[in-house]
Amino acid sequence: MALGAAFLDLDSFPNHLPSSKLLSDLPTPQAVEPQVIVQRAPAPSRMQMPQGNPLLLSHSLQELLARDTVQVELIPEKKGLFLKHVEYEVSSQRFKSSVYRRYNDFVVFQEMLLHKFPYRMVPALPPKRMLGADREFIEARRRALKRFVNLVARHPLFSEDVVLKLFLSFSGSDVQNKLKESAQCVGDEFMNCKLATRAKDFLPADIQAQFAISRELIRNIYNSFHKLRDRAERIASRAIDNAADLLIFGKELSAIGSDTTPLPSWAALNSSTWGSLKQALKGLSVEFALLADKAAQQGKQEENDVVEKLNLFLDLLQSYKDLCERHEKGVLHKHQRALHKYSLMKRQMMSAAVQNREPESVEQLESRIVEQENAIQTMELRNYFSLYCLHQETQLIHVYLPLTSHILRAFVNSQIQGHKEMSKVWNDLRPKLSCLFAGPHSALTPPRSPPQSPPEDGLCPH
User: Fold this and answer.
1) What number is the average pLDDT over the span 47-70?
2) Residue 342: CB partners within 8 Å, gap ≥ 6?
3) Which of 180, 257, 419, 454 has the most CB atoms in a 10 Å sphere around its CB?
4) pTM to 2 decimals?
């Protein structure tokens, strides 16, 4: 089979597979997979087949976003003997719960999701930084953890799984062991899905061509949104920098107005002008502080409503890329190895027949070949089921695409509101500038330039 042809051109991205250390704690199911699927009657807790065409998703973006909203907030640091431990308060609207979680709890949670749903888009976690974690890094990680858990809580399958409910609502002292216990003796989605052995029947004939096109499209979307996110970060950062500059500008004006250095005797004729100027400059710091506050509000709003939504969508797209890589390096690679091993066994069988070996050795070889054929059959079923899941996850990406309009609307509204509020402060500030030119020998307004005749081409110079 050449089902992996559509995934051979993937860019190199981190492969977020479960670590052997954590998954080694899970007992391996003892049943042989082909017999489990074909002969064993499904238990009531097994995943049921949806109505209609199970390959097609019928969710809208509004429905996914309405599934849950999870907040992840930092709680005061607990100082250990040598290290400071960062904890998070995780609150779920759906479960009406509020629990405390450490970063390692998120790690085990993600491991269990990958164990149960290896063919789905499990988002990546932000990196762990043991020493020297500054406030900026801790805040960035908090935001990333919030995006991670919200993407999981809104996924059609993850949102109904017991692992999610435990993570969001279990308030015991050892959530990690509780999460691992929930996965004991429970196979992955392939072993629990009623239609796993029939996945091929629902796939289109041109599945490889479709995924080649979809993969290329999503890769292009990712690259474009990555650039949009970088520019949005720069815009928000400039607004915050502008706020700092305006605040310093106003403080320097106030410093001039508060200067108590005596006026030299040769400038005594202009003492009243200097006094009026100082008084006016001293009062302008209030307006510039207000301008700085408006600019800072705009920058923070764009960070929360624009940059974070772009990061959320990028995290989802990255999880799709990781899923494609798991498909290629996981089930496809194992299938190819099994086929290679099978071909070697067949050659050994032919060689044994030619050399007239003892019947016992031939029977053992035949038994191994039968076992290998069963393993290959199971891998082929997993391969088709992996493609089935990829087809659905591709649809899920497209369900999230309208998030673009939410992002653009938030960006435009932020710009309009920010410039509107700052424009009002600037307009209120302009009349106060007239007193800067007030004095015994000057008019209340600065001198105007003499009117200029229009240029010969009739166009206004403005």
Assistant:
1) 82
2) 369, 372, 373, 376
3) 180
4) 0.75
